[in-house]
């Protein structure tokens, strides 16, 4: 889910790039990320009206030429032709499978010895880019958390609600006791680590897939008959996938005409990519390697649930190559259409702009997710929510993403900890939720004593990371030391 809001007092692209190597400087940047709730939905998302998107400035033609070199033109054209054939076949398979195309695994499959899924299961998740993990938290516990959240809102009518207070779906609390318990629950963290380890990182890459950093988000109760708020979109940046040099290195195989060799789960360059060059409303000040929500009621198809495009490699190869091809499927290095990836706005997709994705066929509803099940999807996966809730029960979830410990996330963790201890919204959230009377003055909000585990305290910045642990990589050791220094341990 994209963050709803627009930024003010944002630093320049050059200044953001020049200081991203220092965690404490990153924290300074995050303090300047003050968002205000937009007045219209199109302030959040790129404009998707018209048969063609708006053309971006001429510099984006130069950007295209920097990504695809002349010596690779023939290879890229041939790769596009192969991609369209593969997509046609895969779309048919997804449509035929429906929700079954989204892998479902059991929490008990996570191995005790290394906190990983068996390789066969991991491979299935890698291919789809998403999964439902069954039975992470007992049903009774999940339902108890939902009751606690609703009771809190009843006691505190000042809690902001989106899209409005008369027909709310998103509730803007961040530090309610149930949220603190859910984020720090040992099984939730264990699931996050198993999913995080589907990614790979080189020995010296400064990222820790075995530790998390807090990113406090909200929770949803979508009632029967409600209309969906989100169109097909991507999180974790928009034009940044092409424009930020480090982010672009993630996709270099695609722009060399070798999309088959692209690894969506390679962390080496993602860990240092900048995903918010323009202070966009759909952007986020943390790198969430996987988006996710914990079900706190019975969710499922036709009941207002999330919808996913369960093929991460083909979908991303298509989206990343689309600006390089015209409507006749011929290489076009001069146009500046980026098809929904406008600077400073959420990245949207549309059937007429992305015809070979067949979004009405390839995006399928998530399978049933009972209270206590955990739904997770790759940061590059196309997703939306069902347009209508046709069921009978609330579709209720707590948003809990996977946020690996890396440089990009350390400054954010410093600020998240401050926000938690003060009881104020985290710096990434809309200023419309920043009432002086909100949460900070609620005596019954969550406190450090509500954190269930040592790992939970660590991910919230309240305990140091173990930099001397035996068997960790050079990159893990380095990033834990950087985090401890930034957190002043």
Secondary-structure blueprint of this entry?
Blueprint (H helix, E strand, L loop, with lengths): L5 E3 L4 H6 L4 H9 L2 E3 L22 H9 L5 H25 L6 E3 L12 H10 L1 E5 L4 H17 L5 E2 L7 E2 L5 H8 L1 H11 L10 E6 L6 E4 L10 E2 L5 H4 L1 H6 L1 H4 L34 E6 L10 E3 L3 H10 L25 E2 L10 H4 L1 E2 L8 E5 L4 E3 L9 E5 L4 E3 H16 L31 H6 L14 H13 L3
Parallel strand pairs: 3-4
Antiparallel strand pairs: 1-2, 4-14, 5-6, 6-8, 7-17, 8-16, 9-12, 10-14, 10-16, 11-13, 11-15
Helix pairs in contact: 2-14, 4-12, 6-7, 14-16
Protein name: DUF1479-domain-containing protein
InterPro entries: Gig2-like, IPNS-like_sf
Organism: Lentinula aciculospora
Biggest beta sheet summary: 8 strands, mixed
Radius of gyration in whole Å, from Cα?
21 Å
**Which CATH-level-2 architecture?**
Sandwich
**What's the total number of strands?**
17
Number of domains: 1
Percent range of helical residues:
25-40%
The stretches of 5 or more residues where confidence is low (pLDDT under 50) are 1-42
What is the CATH fold-level name?
Jelly Rolls
CATH class: Mainly Beta
| Average pLDDT number | 89
Describe this entry's structure for a reader:
The protein has helices at 13-18, 23-31, 59-67, 73-97, 119-128, 139-155, 177-184, 186-196, 240-243, 245-250, 252-255, 312-321, 359-362, 407-422, 454-459, 474-486, and strands at 6-8, 34-36, 104-106, 130-134, 161-162, 170-171, 207-212, 219-222, 233-234, 290-295, 306-308, 347-348, 364-365, 374-378, 383-385, 395-399, 404-406. The chain has 489 residues and is an alpha+beta fold. It has a single domain, classed as B-lactam Antibiotic, Isopenicillin N Synthase, Chain (Jelly Rolls), CATH 2.60.120. The strands form five sheets. Strands 3-4-14-10-16-8-6-5 form an eight-stranded mixed beta sheet. A three-stranded antiparallel beta sheet has the order 13-11-15. Strands 1-2 form a two-stranded antiparallel ribbon. α2 packs across α14. The longest helix is centred in the N-terminal third of the chain and has 25 residues, at 73-97. The protein starts with 5 loop residues before the first strand and ends with a helix. This is DUF1479-domain-containing protein. Residues 424-449 are annotated as: Disordered. Residues 434-449 have a biased composition (Basic and acidic residues).
